[in-house]
Amino acid sequence: MLPETLQQHEAAAAIDRDLPGAVAGGHDRLGETTLEVDPARILEVCRYAKERLGFNRLSAITCVDWHPSQPRFEVVYHLHAIRGHRRLRLKCRVAENQPLESAIGVWRSADWYEREVFDMFGVEFRNHPNLSRILMPLDWDGHPLRKDYPIHGFKYSYKDE
Fold first, then answer.
1. Binning pLDDT at 50, 70 and 90, where does residue 4 land?
2. What percent of the chain has pLDDT above 90?
3. CA atoms of 22 and 32, how far apart (whole Å)
4. What is the number of other CB atoms lying within 10 angstroms of the CB of residue 59?
5. Is 136 domain-assigned?
6. HSE-up of 104 (CA within 13 Å, CB side)?
7. 90-123 pLDDT tens trace
8. Residue 138 included in any domain
9. What does the alpha-carbon distance between residue 144 and residue 87 come to, in Å, rounded to a whole number?
10. Which residues contact 51 (CB under 8 A, 6 or more apart)?
11. Which of 23, 127, 128, 156 is the most exposed place for a label (fewest CB within 10 A)?
C-alpha cells in the first residue's frame, strides 16, 4: 500500500492499483516522487510507466552503494514524461551479485546507463546485449564507485602494444 502522501499522485496511484505488490513504498518530497519497486518487477513497472503513463524518456539510471547495509545497492531510474513535463523516480534495492532485468527493451537509452552502473558498481543487468565496461579499461580490476574500493585505487600499468 502506498503512503498517504503518494495516494494523490496520479502515476504512483495507477502503478499501485494496476500492478499490485510491485511498489513497496515511496515518498513525495519537494515535488519529487519516488517509488520503491520490487527488483523482480522493475521491468514490468518501467514498461507500464512508459506505455500506460507516458514516461517516454529515461533520463538516467544511477546507483548508490549503501555498504555495509544489505541489500547493498540501490539502483535508481529517472523517468520523464515530455508531454506535461512530469518526472518519476523508481528505486530498487539489490544485493551484491543480484542482477536486474535490462530496461533496453523499454528505452534504448538504458544501454549506456546500465553499462555505466555495471562498470562503476558491478551491478549486472540480465539480457543486456553488451554488458561490458564503458568508462574503465576492459581489463580493469574492481568497480571504482563501490564504498569498499581502495581510496588510492588499484595500480594499473599500461602495456605497450
1. confident
2. 80
3. 19
4. 13
5. no
6. 13
7. 999 999 999 999 999 999 999 999 999 999 999 9
8. no
9. 29
10. none
11. 156
Residues 6+ apart with CB under 8 A from 40: none
Counted residue by residue, the chain has a size of: 161
Number of separate domains in the chain: 1
pTM, whole model, 2 decimals? 0.91
User: Considering the domain boundaries, does residue 156 fall inside one?
Assistant: no
Domain hosting 86: range is 4-126
Residues ≥6 apart with Cβ < 8 Å to 154: 140, 141, 142
The CATH number covering residue 12 comes to: 3.30.460.80
- Structure confidence by residue, pLDDT tens digits, 47-74: 999 999 999 999 999 999 999 999 999 9
d(CA 79, CA 44): 14
In the block, cell 543487468 appears at 125
